[in-house]
């Protein structure tokens, strides 16, 4: 059994005399009781009376209940208000203040108002002062008090006042004496309560010798934390029974990072998939928000399905959650792919149900039916209901979804489940306020409760204790490390409550209002820490990002040390010595050759495009099936806007058929035709995105398309006479032995019978990407080479708001405005015939590479890597670059 964390010698006399020991928190009270039990066992006792040791808040709760049992009238004024109900009442008080500033939002001030009123009660500020000094806050206080009276509720300070008055009147027996252990200060209200409770009140007295203390300068907070964890691990390894403490003033913020570092030091491999979760070999005093526990956060996430729409990422998180329904990994993966294919920032929850039902047909896993059952339960509810009714719905819905999942819960998850169930038992208390609320508000309050609730898993006692500054009060260690002793935190800067007069706060010496008070408090806390262990290391960071920091003046007399003076490899520097081993180099430029009889290849012209830019990416995409879903974007994506233009042009030329009809139309008829076309095209998009295509957005999009089409038709009028021979024409063929499925945007026929292939581009376009040994954009060249009829020109029709024009090559002058045959400039071939020959050779070569399995990680164009970053986990280009850089350095 490890030595207790409290030195019981300092309290033996008080406990034996029957004194009431009060502590600032439950942790210290428990440690004192453990130390007393250890002391009794050392004396050989098998049983002993329990000492009277309690945290002050717990003691006040117990005394208030005794007042209730005695029938004290003031104690029957109401039940204690829970923190979340208190916030609701403050929000109402602020919201209903007709004289508040117009720009003031109630939700931003509720917590400050609650804190300010708590200070008012604990520091016993009179109503007269509030009326005179803070008229706006006083109006809120009056409203809040009326609400408390209406709903028969009282605050924590109200309970303390009842206890004070009851002891003052002698209705409760007084303890012989009270001893305060671990307190830095007490509020005037609590001082008054204790003064009326007992005639003798004593406090801690330092009896231990000052520690051997040193200070250490670290470059950054990360290095400081890493050094403390490595030091603690080294101390624990050298003496497994030693009590080791790490004090982190801002522990709640650094908890996650601290936990990861401790696990990596004390239990390497803890995060490997095959490792079962074990109790950690350390204790961290700071709990985490219940809302951040995976089990609970997933329950709240599932309840978000009650909303009409959710962000795409939220729907994907729900889909991949292991805490509901059957595992069915294939169904979940296929559904996520289908949702991401829509490339929308937000989707209706009904879309998730629809896609799951489609994929469920083959697997019959029941996920879709669970979501349907959840939705049917919601439909049965009225628009407004009490909190108890909403809670019943939430519990039924989670049961319908199969939460918390198929697998057995581990011990920590089971504790989270118990904590969640306790929270749900408190939720119906909101009905005391007599409010009928809609579902979003009911969800909001449940989420707020889970966010405010703190979860601290019960774990075995461990040698290493990580504590915040307040939790460390009164504890004793063998080795102690105190972090964060820079001049920003020791002493703390002032932070007065903005709703109370600053002069009043300084006058009454309230927390965080007076620099002198904070200095004295910091000196007292540091003095206590220096007495808390024989060895104390004090550390500080020299930089916060780029901002330089200085050590606190309070540790100026402490002797400095360096990392080399600490036990273990505390500096975090890895041993750079390496053992030379023979490495075998293997060539991985080639994959197995393509077997068209065994492999089904899809991808069309994309095969040649990817092979030209990076052969490995072509192999990964078209043979391994690697594919990145499109990124969601607000509004219409660039691709969707392009598809809208394509759709409009297809409908337009289906009506016009040839240039002659276009030229013959008068302006009014042409405008009417364009309007009809744009309305029809937009209507098709509206079917799938009704939330986006509201009246205003639809009108703006039609105006954009109308302007774009009219400008483009002006360009079409300047051409030689033509007729449209085909639109969105599909072609199944092969090239270089590879199957190709192509869709040609448009094929025109001139009066001479010659054909022109046109590809619409709503973005930028360039013919330079058709040239060279590895053409970056081989789509149009492939269209031409695979055409069954002679082609006189291939071109882009660039149609965007900045410019409308044709770009490409022709076999003779004058076929298209601004387009001419190749003339050997800017890497062009000298003639149309040489251009066709170059395309035939280069594209055949790319096809042969792909069939032979050539899959080198080589980026042949500067932007190739930039636009294929999603494939880097497969092609490992970043690692290859790093390795290459290292070789160059050598």
TrEMBL record:
Pfam family, one: PDDEXK_1
InterPro entries according to UniProt: DNA_repair_protein_predicted, P-loop_NTPase, PDDEXK-like_dom_sf, PDDEXK_AddAB-type
Species of provenance: Porticoccus litoralis
Name of the protein: PD-(D/E)XK nuclease family protein
Chain intervals with Polar residues compositional bias: 880-890
Span of domain PD-(D/E)XK endonuclease-like: 612-854
Region of interest called Disordered, as start-end residue ranges on this chain: 869-890
Top-level taxonomic group: Bacteria
